[in-house]
Structure formats: structure tokens, C-alpha cells
Fold this sequence. Notes:
Layout: H1 6-11, H2 38-48, H3 74-94, E1 98-99, E2 105-107, E3 113-115, E4 133-140, H4 152-165, E5 169-170, E6 176-185, H5 190-202, E7 208-211, H6 214-218, H7 221-226, E8 231-234, E9 250-252, H8 257-270, H9 272-278, E10 283-290, H10 293-308, E11 315-322, H11 330-337, E12 343-347, H12 351-362, H13 365-368, E13 371-374, H14 381-384, H15 386-389, E14 400-402, H16 418-429, H17 442-458, H18 466-474, E15 502-503, E16 505-509, E17 514-517, E18 522-523, E19 533-534, E20 539-540
Parallel strand pairs: 4-6, 4-7, 8-9, 10-11, 10-12, 12-13, 13-14
Antiparallel strand pairs: 1-2, 2-3, 5-6, 14-16, 15-18, 16-17, 19-20
Helix pairs in contact: 3-17, 4-17, 8-10, 11-12, 17-18
Amino acid sequence: MKRRTSVFGALLPGLSLVAAACGGDDGGSGATAGTIDSDVNAGVKDALGGGAATTGVGDEASTTIAPAPEPTSMEEWESLWADEREAIVERIKENDWGISADGTKVTGPEGFTIDLTQCPTGWTNTEGLSDTEIRIGQTLPLSGPAAAYGELALGADVVFDRINKAGGIPDSEGKKRTITYIAKDDGYDPARTIPLVDELIDSEKVFMVWTLGTAPTMKTYDKLNQRCIPQPLAQTGHPAWGDPVNHPWTTGEQMAYTTEAILWGSFIEQHADELKAAKDGKITVAALIANNDFGKSYDVGFRAWLAQSPIKDDIEYVTETMEPTAPTITDAMTTLAATDPEVFIAMTFAAYCTQSIVEAANNGLKDTTVYAFQPSVCKGQSYAGKEKVGGDGMVSDGWYMVGGGIKAMDSPAFDDDPWVKNARQELEAAGVDWRTKPSSFLGPRFTWTLEQVLLIAGELDGGLNRTNFIVALRAFDMTSPFLLPGAKFNLNGNADAYLTEASEFSVYNAATQSYDIVTDVIDLSGRSNNCSFNQATATCE
């Protein structure tokens, strides 16, 4: 597969796209054009037609602006974050957001509210807190096919240990609390997640619950919201976490999978002439889809894009599903290779990303397809490095990725990045080898955001509690050290329910064992529609 970046790089910078569109079904009927924001879709067509590049920020697209330079030292980063936290605290206090005097209601930005009278009997705003401790619960796969993601716990332990040694999280009531982190292995199996979450909230009495993975989060977010327990920064990009009205206690952190699917589609539109000329005048797009809520969200998003695309009649979309517990994907990949696709997309996760690379090399798909994509959840050496794929690693060369704006912290490209260097050094000092366990970087990434929200909540009137925590999160607007420059990182009550709405396109370079960024960051902050998710139809309503 040849690497084609020059034309792509010239067209994509600043592209304005719809963010979290939902629609269609998991059958073959596709979606309606109404599932994609018409105004934003018009902006996409303008951009693809060679119009001025736009950022898509706010109600009207604006001219692309170069991102501000990042801090060049940890001291500069810390100073910037302190200023940003102070601004958030000031905004919250000025607007008198938070819990009402009678304890029945929580208010936040842009109409965000929680009716606390709906919380269960015995609910308390300070569950999981003592004068000296914050109890944080986590379910994640420490075993099974997604166990690489469980390395997050290694990195989280390191960061929490550093926070604790520095005295913990202070608050306005004069308290300092250390963090007790309780991680439980669900093997990425939602049937195991459910009783573990019950154990965390009923026996461990945690302040909040972290969940990793779409299916585990989906099976527990109704319960956690009914119990009025924070479920922040869920480690999954399903669009359902953007639902501040019906699920105010749950947020995600990463770019929505449906946004990623639309970016794949927009790439295909840009390259339509090339793809049609490659073989028979048609474009076959083949996808390997995980048979769960995670894979379905990719499929639904792509079908939504396809339904409104001006080239939909030129595209044949063929799919094979794989079970999340399957030992191999050989049969499914062989079937897809036989369709002789121009584009292949791996809508899967963890070890199956590596397997798709290897299988595509073995069955000839890599040699015959024009473009092949890995999913954003498989960014980094954990899945494409030569230690994983074998040999000299060249079978990974040329694979594309819509990377979600995240810095690949194991990449040589970030050797001089002060925050990345600091995170690497913290892991190494604790005996965690990030070179062999690169997903341990998920720990510093997710705990950075959590630490900032805890610090902000602690400065609010009444100090740290669950309602202050969720208001601080819904008003969050800071510069993230793990995102590429130009990617915003914010929430704004009911008006903006997605922290990350940005991405770059990258291509894997086997010679350097890293993804080469080939476009500017495409930031869509504030453009995603909220998602009241219907699990029966797998769509946002």
C-alpha cells in the first residue's frame, strides 16, 4: 500500500465537519440525511469544494487560526493551568452555579440542571469522602483481549501516588484529601462490570466511578445516573456520553466514534476520483466491525455519512463482524479481502487492531487496497509496533488513522514535549516501562483531567463534594497537555457536552515506528449535537 499524503495534506487542514451524528441501524438499510446537521454538512461541502478553510467554532464557521504556542516547561504548564482553574472558579461563582440553598437542585452553564429530589433515599453529597480521603472506583480490563487498556491502572496509580505524596487535593474548607484508587478487573465484559460497579458503590462507597469501554459503560450509566453518582471521563468515545439532560452525571473525554466515522467518509469523498480510477469505477469500502455497542456506533456513524453523501451511489459498503471474545479474526478478514476493497476500515479495538494489520498483510488486502484505516482507540505502539506485529514491523507501514487529536506519547515525535517527558519520567521512576506497556500513558492522560476537576471543585463554596465536582466538570475549559495544539478541551453545560471534538489524520511510518501527522488539527468544538441515545435503535434522538 503506497502512502499518499501530499494531495490529502493540501485539502484537509481546517476542514469543518459535523461532530456526533447518529442514525441508521445495524442492518443494511442505512440512515437518513436528517441525522447529520445540515448547516455543518453544508460547510463540509464548501471545504471539499475548495472553499476557504474553516474551524467550525460556534454557530458560524470562522477562518482557521494557527494554535497558540504550547508552554515549553512544566513550570509554564502549571502556571497556565492555575490561571485557567481560577477563571473557571470565578465563572461558576459569578453565575451562582451549584447546589441550591434548599439542596434540591444543581445548576450549571447553559441551562444545565440536576433535580436532586430524584436521587435515591439516603443519597449523600459527600459519599466516598472523609476529611482525609477521596475514594475512586474503576472497572477496566486487566485480563482478556482488551487487557492492554488495563495498563491505564498502572499509570493512574503512579499519578495518584504523586498527588498523595504532595499532600493530596486541597479544598476551600481547609481539608486535604489523599486518593484511594480501587481498580477491579471486568475483562471488558459488561456482565462482569455490572456486579463490580454494584460492589464499588454499595460496599466500597466510592465518590465516583470510572468505567472503560463502551459496552461496560453503556450497561452501567443508567444506574449511576439514577443513583446520582459521578461517572466522569468514561474511557470510551461513544456519542451517548454527550447527554447532559438525561445523564448529567456521565461524561466522556475522547472524540465521538461517530465523528471519526464521518471523517473517514469525508476522506473518501476527497479521494473519490482516485478511488474510482483504481479498479472498476466503483468504490468498495470494507469494514471489520466489533459486534458490540462500540463497533455498532462506528457502523451507524459511517452509514449516516453514506446516506447523505453525493457519491453514495458509487460506494458499496461491505462489512464483517467479529465477536469481542474471538481468539482470531482470520475468517472475517479473509472474507473482506475477497471483496477487493479500495478502502478498508478496522472498526475494532485492542488486540484485534494488531490482528487486522497482520491479517491484511497475510491475505493480500494491504497490497491491493488503496487506503486502510486503524481506529483511534488503537493509537500508538501498543498495536502497530514491530514488537506487536512481528518481523521488521513493515506490515504496519502506511496505515492511516483519524487520531482524535491525542499526542501519541510513545512516539519519538514528542521526545521534547515537556509534559510527555514528565509523564514518561514519572512512570519510569515508579518502575513502569512505558516502552513495553505504552497504554500505561492512559493513566497520566485521564488522571490529569480528573485532578484539575477535583482542584476546581475544591475551590468552590462548600469545598469538594459530588455536586461541586459535576458543576466544575460541566464548566471545564482548559488547555490539555495530551492534545495536539489547536484541539480545544472544554464542556459548556447543555450547550457543549463533548470535551474533545478534534482530530488530525496520521499515517504510520514503520521506519520511525510512529504515526506521522499529515494534516492540521481539525477542531469542531461546540459543533456536536447532544445525544439522547436510544439503545433499542442504536441511534441518538
